[in-house]
Design goal:
The complex is a heterotrimer of chains A (about 70), B (about 325) and C (about 750). Chain A has about 70 residues and is largely without helices or strands. Chain A is built from one helix and two strands. Chain A has a two-stranded antiparallel sheet with strand order 1-2. The chains are: A little secondary structure (about 70), B alpha+beta (about 325), C alpha+beta (about 750). The structure holds flavin-adenine dinucleotide (FAD). The site of flavin-adenine dinucleotide has 30 residues of chain B, from β2, α2, α6, α8 and β8.
C-alpha cells in the first residue's frame, strides 16, 4: 500500500504549513516528509480531537473530525 | 517554592535566636534554593548567615582553621593552602563554576544534599525522602554509588570539600547557642545504614562555626583530581584526594579518599594498606588503585566507574608524589 | 516586462557566464563579479548594544499592567486517563483568576509524563504555582512504553489505543523498490559495510523558553508577544483557532532568545494563554520553565539506523541501503534518510523508515530534522568502507562526490587547515594513554525559500530610511543583514537604516525554519531598496541635469559615474522628495532560474584526543567549511557556524534525554543533568565560508543555520575512530561508551 503523504484537512499542521508558496516544494516534501512532526490545530497536540494520531495518512476524508480546506 | 521569612543576623549569637521552628540556615543559598524550588524542603524562615563576617576566615598557624562561610573561590585562591593543605584549594577550584564558587561556602558545600536525580526531583518520593523505593537501584544509576550501595539508597555524596578535608583528618565545630561540640569529619557523615534520610549528624538548630585541620602536617604533600564527563561545571564521575607523607622513597603515611564513589566520602583503607611502608613506584600506585576497587559492587549501569576510579586513584597518587602518571605505561 | 542580464556564476573564483531574465521592477542580481561594500563583509549587529546592555526586551521580559501569570498542571504519569479534576481549593485562593482545562470533557487520555492537563492564571507566579499544587486529579494509570525498542514488540502497550501496533507504516523509497534488488547489489560488491548506529533524543533547549503574553484588546482583537520562529505562523494559528480574521490578530516578536525548530508553529501554550486572557479579560503571560521545555515542547527524535553500503574495487559506491526506526514520542518525524539520499552519487539507494510511537514527549522540527542523525550513521559507514578499502577516507568521499565542485573545493580547503595529509594513516597508532585523531564528515541541507514576502521602505525628506517587515530575528541577526542590503543598494551605512521587524502589522515575512530566512527575505529587501534608489536617483537626475543611467549611489552621495567629483548628497536629493516622504516595497518572487543542484554542501573536520583510561573525549579543533550561496554578513554566518558546531559537539558528547525505565519520567529535566557543552568544552573553531554565486535571486543568498550542525557529531566519531582504532556507533559518546567500545576489542576488563 502506498503511503498517503498529503492530507487536505484544514486543521492538520506541520512546519511546512508556514512556508507560503515554497518553491522546490515537491523536492522538499519528498525529501523530508519522514521528518515532519504533525499536530492538529484543534488540540495543538499530535492527537486530534477524536484522540487518534493526526498525520497525513490518518487525516483523510471519512474521519469524524476531518474538515476539508476547500 | 513556598513563601518564607527572611532573617539577617549580624552575629553568631543572633543566629540561634532565629534558628527555630522550621527555619533553615542559608549561606550561599546555591543548594538550598534549588531544593526549595523542587519542594524537597519548604522552610518557614531562612536565616541568612552571609552577613556575618566573623564566619569568614582562613587562619593558619599551628593547624588550619577555616570559617564556615569562606567561599570556594577564596579557598581556591588562598596562598596559605600549600603542602598538605593544597588539596583543599584544588578541590575548591574544581567545583562548579566561577560564579557559583564566588558565592558557595565551605559549610554549605559540606552540608549540600545529594544530586541523585530521583532525590532531587519532586516527581519521585524515594527512600531518602521517606518513601519506600530507591528508584536508582534498578533504574538510571549510571552516576550512582559503586561502594556501600546495598542499604536502600545508592546516592554518592556530592561534596568535593569533604573529599579533600577527609584526607587531612579535619574536624568540625558545631554550636547550638548553648553547647558546642567537635566532630571528626569522618563521623560527621552518616551512611544510609545509619540513617537513610540524612547525610550528616547536624541537627536543625545547629550551626557549623569552624572547620579545622589539626597540626601543621609538615612535610606532607597532597593532590586532588576530579574526572568529569563534561568539562564545564559537571559533577565528578570520580574524585580522589590524596595526602602523602614520604620517608625518602618510602610511603610513611597516606590518606586516599574517594568522592562520588559511595553515599559518604570515604577513605580507602585497602589502598592505604598497600601503600604504607612501601616504596612508591608507578606499579605500586597501580596496585593500590586496583586494591581500592576490590570491594566495589557496581550497579547495572555504573560498572565503568570502577575503571575510572582505578585510573584516577593511580593518577592522583602519582601527582601527589610528583611523578608523571603518563610515564608509567598503560 | 522583463530584462535580460549576463551574470558571472560559480564557485569561488571559478566563474562562468549565465544569462538570466528578471522582472522590470528588480535590479540586476548580484553575481560573482560584484565586489560589494558591505555584503560579504563582517558587520556587527545593529542591535548588539541593546542586547548586551539588557535594554532589549524579550517576550520573557514583557509585563503589562494588570497582567496575570499562568502555569500548567502536567501529568506526572506517562500513560493514564484523567477521571476527575477538583480545582475548588485552588479557585478559592486569593489571587487566582481562572482555571481552565485543556480537554473539553473528561475522561482525558494522557500519553506522556509532562502532558498538559489544565492551566491556572493568577496575579503572581507564586500564587499560580501554589494553586496548581492544590488541584486534585484522579488518574487511572495505564501501562506505558518509553523506549522504541520495547514499543516495537507485539505485546507492548499501545500509545494510541486505536492502532494495532506502535509502529507506523514503513515509508520506503523509491516507492516501488524491491529490497532484494539492493541486497543483490550489496552482496556483489567488492567491499561492504553492514552496521547499526544509534542516536539519542536531544531536547530543545533554547535560552529563552517557549511562551507568550496575550491580551484581548476587545472581543474580536487579539494581540500577543510570542517567543516564536514564525510571527505569522502564530498569528494564523491564533486566528484560525479563535475564528478571527487574520487582520484582527497581531503577533510581536521584538527580540527572541533562540529557537531550533520547536518554536516554528502552534503550541498549546499559545491557545491556553489566549483562552485564559479571554476568560479573565486581562493580559496573560504563559512562559514555560526549563523543566517544561525538556518535557513537552519538542525534541530531536532518536534513531536506530541499520546501514549497508557497498563499493567496488575502485572505491565507487555500488549501493546504499538504510533501514531505520526511531521515536518522536507520541508524534511523528523520526526519519533519517535525507543524507543517505542526497550526498553520494549512486543510483542505487534504498531507504525504509519507520516511526515508532512511545509514551514520551513529542518530537519537533530540530535544526536540520533527521540530518545530524542520518549523517552520524552515513558518514561513519562511509568512513568504515574507506578504511576497509585501505583508502584515505577523504579520497573515498572525493571519488563519490566528484560531480560537486563545491565539495571538491571544501575538501581541499578543510584538509589544508586541519593538516589532514600529515596525519598518521593508521588508526589507533598513537603511543600512550592520550590518543589523537582526525576525522571528516559531509553536511547536507537544501535550498528552501518561500514566496510572497513583502518589505517596505520609507524614505523621508531628511534622508532617513525606514525598513519594515514582519520577520522575526531569532538571534541569527536577520535585521542586521536586511540593513546591510539596504545600505549596499542605497550607498548608505547599515547603521543609517532604521529596521523595524518582528510584527505582523508589517508585510509578510518568512518563518525561520529550513534555513530559509535570508534566502526568503533579502531579495525582497533588495528589490524594495532598489526601487527606493531609483526614486531618489530620478530626483537627483533632475537636480543635476544628468541621465539617471549615468548616476550611482555610494557613500551617502549620488555620483556621476566616471566623474566622481560631480555629486550631490543623499540628503540633499531626499530634501526634494515631493510630499515629504515616499514608500516603496519589494516582494519575494520566484527565482529567475531553478538551480540544478538543490543541496547545500558543507564539510567539517575534527581533531580530537581520547583518554583511553577514562574514556573522556576532548575536541581540540573543528574546521568547518560551508556553502551558503552568496554570503551576506560573514560575521553572523560565522556565528551560525560556531553555534552549529557547539550544538553538534554537545550532541556528540553530552546531550541525552533520560527517561526512567520504570516510571517513564524524565530524570534529567534541567540544565545540570541534561548536559550541554559549556565554554570549557568548546574548541577552536575555524570556519571558512565559500562564495557560491548562482544569481538565482536579487541577492543570491541561500542558508547556513542548519547545515552548520549536521556533520559535527559524525566528524568527531570518525576522529575518535582514528584516535583509538575502535568505532563508537552510539551517541552520545560518553566515557562509559568509549570504555565499553575499547573493552570489547580487547576482550578484557
Ligand atoms: C551547576 C553546579 C555544579 C556544582 N558542582 C559541584 C562540584 O563539582 N563539587 C561540589 O562539591 N559541589 C558542586 N556544586 C555544589 C555547590 O558547591 C554547593 O551547592 C555549594 O557549595 C553550597 O554552598 P552554599 O553556601 O550555597 O550553601 P547553601 O545552599 O546556603 O546551604 C547548603 C546547606 O548547608 C547548610 N549550611 C550552610 N552553612 C551552614 C552552617 N554554617 N552551619 C550549618 N549548616 C549550614 C544549609 O542549611 C543547607 O542545608 C555545584 C553546584 C551547582 C549548582
Amino acid at each position: 500500500m502506498k503511503t498517503k503523504t498529503e492530507s487536505k484537512c484544514k486543521y492538520l499542521r506541520t512546519k511546512m504549513s508556514y512556508v507560503p508558496d515554497v518553491d522546490n516544494s515537491e523536492f522538499w516534501r519528498s525529501t523530508d516528509s519522514t521528518t515532519h512532526a504533525y499536530w492538529c490545530l484543534l488540540t495543538m497536540q499530535p492527537a486530534g480531537p477524536d484522540d487518534s494520531l493526526a498525520a497525513p495518512p490518518e487525516c483523510q476524508p471519512g474521519r469524524k473530525c476531518y474538515d476539508s480546506k476547500e | 517554592m513556598r513563601k518564607f521569612e527572611y532573617a539577617m543576623p549580624r552575629s553568631v549569637d543572633e543566629v540561634f535566636q532565629y534558628l527555630e521552628n522550621n527555619a533553615a540556615v542559608k549561606a550561599g543559598g546555591i543548594d538550598l534554593l534549588d531544593r526549595m524550588k523542587e519542594y524537597e524542603i519548604s522552610p518557614g524562615r531562612l536565616v541568612n548567615i552571609n552577613g556575618i563576617e566573623a564566619l569568614r576566615y582562613i587562619k593558619n598557624g599551628n593547624g588550619l582553621r577555616l570559617g564556615p562561610s569562606v567561599t570556594l573561590a577564596e579557598l581556591a585562591a588562598s596562598k596559605k593552602l600549600t603542602g598538605a593543605w593544597r588539596v583543599i584549594a584544588l578541590a575548591a577550584a574544581g567545583a562548579a563554576t566561577p560564579q557559583i564558587r564566588n558565592i558557595a561556602t565551605l559549610a554549605g558545600n559540606l552540608c549540600q544534599r545529594p544530586r541523585c536525580w530521583y532525590f532531587r526531583s519532586a516527581d519521585f518520593h524515594c527512600t531518602r525522602k521517606g518513601g519506600d523505593t530507591c528508584f536508582a537501584l534498578d533504574g538510571e544509576n549510571q552516576y550512582h554509588a559503586i561502594i556501600g550501595n546495598s542499604d536502600g539508597c545508592v546516592i554518592v555524596h556530592p561534596s568535593a570539600m569533604a573529599t579533600a578535608l577527609l584526607a587531612l583528618d579535619a574536624v568540625i565545630v558545631i554550636e547550638n547557642g548553648k553547647d558546642s561540640r567537635t566532630v571528626a569529619l569522618a563521623d560527621f557523615y552518616m551512611t544510609p545504614a545509619q540513617d537513610i534520610q540524612r547525610e550528616t549528624v547536624l541537627q536543625a538548630d545547629e550551626l557549623i562555626t569552624e572547620i579545622s585541620v589539626p597540626g601543621t602536617m609538615q612535610g606532607w604533600k597532597s593532590h586532588y583530581n576530579k574526572l568529569k564527563e563534561k568539562q564545564a561545571f559537571d559533577w565528578p564521575l570520580a574524585e580522589v584526594a590524596v595526602a602523602l607523607q614520604m620517608d625518602g622513597k618510602r610511603v610513611k603515611d597516606v590518606r586516599v579518599v574517594l568522592g562520588a564513589a559511595a553515599p559518604v566520602p570515604m577513605r580507602s583503607e585497602l589502598a592505604e594498606m598497600v601503600l604504607k611502608n612501601s616504596v612508591l613506584t608507578h606499579e605500586l600506585a597501580r596496585t593500590a588503585a586496583g586494591e581500592a576497587m576490590e570491594n566495589a559492587e557496581p550497579l547495572s549501569e555504573n560498572g565503568y566507574k570502577v575503571r575510572i576510579f582505578k585510573t584516577m586513584i593511580y593518577r592522583t597518587l602519582c601527582h601527589a608524589a610528583g611523578m608523571d602518571p603518563f610515564a608509567g605505561g598503560v | 516586462m522583463s530584462k535580460k542580464y549576463k551574470l558571472k556564476v560559480g564557485v569561488q573564483e571559478n566563474l562562468r557566464d549565465l544569462t538570466v531574465e528578471v522582472n522590470d521592477n528588480q535590479p540586476r542580481p548580484w553575481d560573482g563579479s560584484d565586489h560589494l561594500k558591505y555584503i560579504g563583509k563582517e558587520q556587527t549587529r545593529i542591535d548588539g548594544r541593546e542586547k548586551v546592555t539588557g535594554r532589549a526586551k524579550y517576550t520573557f521580559d514583557r509585563q503589562l499592567p494588570g497582567m496575570l501569570w499562568a502555569r500548567f498542571l502536567r501529568s506526572p504519569y506517562p500513560a493514564a486517563v484523567v477521571k476527575s479534576i477538583d480545582s475548588s481549593e485552588a479557585e478559592k485562593m486569593p489571587g487566582v483568576y481562572a482555571v481552565i482545562t485543556v480537554a473539553e470533557k473528561l475522561p482525558m487520555t494522557i500519553r506522556f509524563a509532562g502532558q498538559e492537563i489544565l492551566a491556572v492564571a493568577a496575579d503572581s507566579d507564586c500564587v499560580a504555582e501554589e494553586a496548581v499544587r492544590r488541584i486534585q486529579i484522579e488518574y487511572d494509570k495505564k501501562p506505558f512504553v518509553v523506549s522504541a525498542d520495547e514499543a516495537r514488540k507485539a505485546d507492548a502497550p499501545r500509545v494510541y489505543s486505536g492502532m494495532n501496533s506502535n509502529m507506523r507504516e514503513t515509508r520506503i523509497r523509491p516507492e516501488d523498490a524491491r529490497e532484494s534488488d539492493y541486497d543483490r547489489l550489496l552482496s556483489g560488491s567488492h567491499v561492504r559495510v553492514d552496521q547499526t548506529y544509534r542516536t539519542q533524543v536531544q531536547t530543545h533547549s533554547a535560552m529563552e523558553t517557549h511562551g507568550i503574553v496575550a491580551v484581548w484588546e476587545d472581543a474580536r482583537h487579539l494581540k500577543a508577544w510570542a517567543s516564536t520562529q514564525g510571527t505569522f505562523a502564530v498569528r494564523n494559528d491564533l486566528a484560525d483557532y479563535f475564528g478571527l480574521p487574520k487582520s484582527n490578530v497581531r503577533v510581536i516578536t521584538e527580540y527572541m532568545g533562540g529557537g531550533f525548530g520547536a518554536k516554528l508553529g502552534g503550541g498549546i501554550y499559545y491557545i491556553m494563554a489566549a483562552r485564559l486572557a479571554k476568560k479573565t479579560g486581562k493580559p496573560v503571560r504563559l512562559m514555560l520553565n526549563r523543566k517544561e521545555e525538556h518535557l513537552s515542547v519538542g525534541n530531536r527524535p532518536d534513531s536506530v539506523q541499520h546501514l549497508q553500503i557497498g563499493a567496488d574495487r575502485n572505491g565507487k559506491i555500488t549501493a546504499i541501503k538504510l533501514k531505520s526506526y526511531g521515536t518522536a514520542g507520541i508524534g511523528t518525524g523520526a526519519g533519517t534518510s535525507g543524507p543517505a539520499r542526497n550526498i553520494y552519487q549512486t543510483d542505487n539507494i534504498y531507504v525504509a523508515e519507520t516511526d515508532v510511537l512511545t509514551n514520551a514527549g513529542p518530537g519537533a522540527a530540530f535544526r536540520a530534522p533527521g540530518h545530524p542523525q542520518g549523517v552520524f550513521a552515513l558518514e561513519q559507514a562511509i568512513d568504515e568502507l574507506a578504511w576497509k578499502l585501505k583508502m584515505d577516507p577523504l579520497e573515498f568521499r572525493r571519488i563519490n562526490t566528484a560531480g560537486d565542485e563545491r565539495r571538491r573545493v571544501e575538501y581541499r580547503i578543510g584538509a589544508g587547515k586541519i593538516g589532514w595529509h600529515k596525519r598518521n594513516p593508521k588508526a589507533g597508532a598513537d603511543k600512550g594513554v592520550i590518543k589523537r585523531g582526525l576525522g571528516v564528515a559531509n553536511s547536507v541541507w537544501y535550498y528552501i525559500y518561500g514566496r510572497g514576502f513583502v518589505c517596505s521602505i520609507q524614505v523621508h525628506s531628511d534622508g532617513s530610511v525606514l525598513l519594515t517587515n514582519g520577520v522575526q530575528d531569532i538571534g541569527g541577526g536577520i535585521g542586521t543583514v536586511m540593513a546591510m542590503v539596504v545600505a549596499e543598494e542605497l550607498g548608505l551605512k547599515p547603521t543609517d537604516i532604521e529596521v523595524k521587524i518582528g510584527d505582523t502589522q508589517y508585510g509578510l515575512g518568512p518563518a525561520s525554519g529550513g534555513s530559509q530566512t535570508t534566502a526568503g527575505i533579502t531579495p525582497a529587501v533588495r528589490d524594495a531598496a532598489w526601487a527606493a534608489g531609483q526614486r531618489v536617483l530620478k530626483i537627483a537626475a533632475d537636480m543635476m541635469n544628468e541621465k539617471i543611467q549615468n548616476l550611482e549611489l555610494a557613500d551617502g552621495r549620488i555620483l556621476v559615474k566616471n566623474k566622481k567629483e560631480k555629486f550631490i548628497t543623499w540628503k540633499k536629493a531626499c530634501s526634494k522628495i515631493p510630499g515629504d516622504q515616499f514608500t516603496v516595497s519589494g516582494e519575494r518572487v520566484k527565482d529567475n532560474h531553478g538551480l540544478q543542484r538543490r543541496t547545500i554542501a558543507g564539510v567539517q573536520f575534527a581533531d580530537v584526543s581520547v583518554d583511553i583510561e577514562t574514556g573522556v573525549v576532548t575536541v581540540n579543533k573543528i574546521v568547518a567549511v560551508h556553502d551558503c550561496g552568496r554570503p551576506m554578513d560573514r560575521l553572523t554566518i560565522r556565528n551560525q557556524i560556531n553555534g552549529g558546531v557547539i550544538q553538534g559537539i554537545s550532541y556528540a558528547l553530552f546531550e541525552n534525554r533520560i527517561l526512567d525505565r520504570n516510571t517513564g519520567v524524565m530524570v534529567n529535566a534541567n540544565l545540570e543533568q541534561y548536559k550541554i557543552a559549556g565554554s570549557v568544552d568548546v574548541p577552536q573553531i575555524e570556519s571558512v565560508i565559500l562564495d557560491v554565486n548562482e544569481g538565482q535571486s536579487s541577492t543570491g543568498a541561500i542558508g547556513i543555520g542548519e547545515p552548520a550542525t549536521v556533520p559535527t557529531a559524525a566528524a568527531i566519531a570518525n576522529a575518535v575512530y582514528h584516535a583509538i582504532g575502535v568505532r563508537v556507533r552510539e551517541l552520545p559518546m560518553t566515557p562509559q561508551r568509549i570504555l565499553a567500545a575499547l573493552d570489547q576489542t580487547k576482550g578484557v576488563k
